[in-house]
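USER:
I would value a second opinion on how I read folds in C-alpha cell form. Give me a protein, with the fold worked out from its sequence. Write it directly below this note and I will take it from there.

ASSISTANT:
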Amino acid sequence: MGRKRVDDDSPGGRTIGAVLLPEGVLGGQTLGRLDRWRKARAIFLRADGSEAERAVSLAIGRAWARAQVYGRARRLLIVRSVEGLLSHLETELGPLAEKVRVAPEDPAQTKWDAIGNLTPLPAAGLQVRSLWLLDVLRSGGLFVEFQPIFDLRSGEAFGFESLLRAREHGGTVRTASEIFPAARALRIERAFERLSWVHALEAAGRLPADSILFLNVNPQLVVSSERELSVLGAEAERVQFPYARLALDLVEVEKVESLEALRSALEVAHDLGVGIALDDITSGYGTLRCCLELTPRWIKVDSAITRGISRDRRRRAVLKMLARVARDFAVALVAEGIESAEDLDVCFLERVFAAQGHFLARPGEEPAPASPELSEWLAARRPMPEPLPPGQPAVTREQLEGAEAAGPDRPEEPADSEVG
C-alpha cells in the first residue's frame, strides 16, 4: 500500500502525512456532505406538529414569520453562525427539539434533495459541533500516545495500550472520549475506526521489541461487518507488526448482544495468535459469558470498579468475583485507572496480574518508564498472596444468580473520585 501526497486520491483512500486514510473518512462525498454546514447561509426547517411549530416561532420570533415557506418546511437565514442558531433552538425548544428537523441549504443541491435529508435538530447540532474533527483530519492532527501496562510481579511493562489523540490548530489536545463520539456524529465511525488502527500500528514501531500492543477495537463494528478485521490484518502485515504481539482490546464488550457472532468474527484472529482482551469490564456475570464465548487472555477491569476501591467494599466484592472468574478460566486480570497506592494495594491483594493508570505511568508518545511512585511501591510491596484453594468455584450459585438478576450495574462512584 503506497504513500501519496495529501491531495492525491486513490481507490483505497486518501493520505495525510504518512498515513493512508480509508475511503469514507475524507472522500469527496463525505467532504461535500459535511462542508454544507460550514458553507450554509440558510437552513431548511420543518417542525412536526403545532406544538413544535409554536415553540420554534417563540424561539426565533419574526424570523419565523418572514421565512420562505416550502410546504411543511421553511427556509431560515443564518444571521451569525449555524452552530449558534442550532444551539439556540435546542436550548429554547427543550424536549420538543426532537420534533424539529433541519438541513443546510446548498446552492449545488436541489431543494428536493435538501428537504429530503432533513435531520433531527439534536443530531444536526451535534454534527455541527463535531466539525472540529474534520479540521483535525485535514491538518494531520491525529497522533497516538501509549500507556504502559505493568506486570505487578516483575514490575516490568509487558504491554502498551494505544490511545488516539487529536491536536487542534490552537494546540488543544482532545482524547478518545471526545474523538470517537465526534466521528459517530459525523457518520464516519467505521472508516475512522480503521484509521485509528492505522495510526496505532504506524506508531507501534516506537515500542520495545517484545512488548504487546493493546489496540482498542469496537466489537459492535466487528460484528456488523466481516471485513473489518481483515483490514486490520492487512495493515499489520504492511507495517510488519507480528500477530503474536497484537491484542484486540474489545471496548464495552459487555454491551454486545450476540457473543456468538463476535466469536465467529474473531476466529481468524485466534488462529493467527492475536490475543483478545475484554475491556471496560464491570460485572462478574457478563464476564462469565464473554469468557465462555470469546476465550480471552486478559480481563481489563474498568476504572469504575478500581478507582476508589480501597474505600469501597462493594467495588472490592466485584473485583473478588472477577478474580475468581479469571482464575477458573486461566485469564490474566488487568486493573485500569489506578491512581493511588492504596487502590493498587487492594488490586495486588486480590491477585490482579497487571495494572495501568497515572499512578504507574502517564501516557506519552514515547513509551514511559515506571513512575517514581510505582518504583517506590514495588520496592515496598508485600509477597504475592497465596493462590486460591484448588477446586474452589469461580462464583457460587447464589452469587451468579444475584449477578444475573442485577445485570452489569456499576457501583456508585465515590464522591471524591476524579477522572485520570
Observations:
- The two ends are 38 Å apart (CA to CA).
